[in-house]
Design a protein that fits this description.
The protein is mostly beta strands. It has one helix and six strands, in the order E-E-H-E-E-E-E.
Length: 95
Amino acid sequence: MAYGASGLTRLSSGGGGNLWLYRSTDASTAADAAGYFNDAVAFLNIGDVILYQQVGGTAVLPTSITATGFLVVNANSGTVVDTTDITSVQASDSD
């Protein structure tokens, strides 16, 4: 799939950086590919941190969270955005 603007929300900013939440039904391997966030080139800055949640349902109305992790914007040429590979965070619930 592709980046969806409705899934990206700025949670915090300060000190020249931003913390974003991005929810998508896309697998994290798609979201951490170079160019995935190109439509957000005007918003994402080098060093910004994105909390990524792969969700069931839709980005706006998720029914579950199947994976989560952090991405860091490591390049923004003005046309292409690249992020680091995702650093996964355990998303299981044993009860």
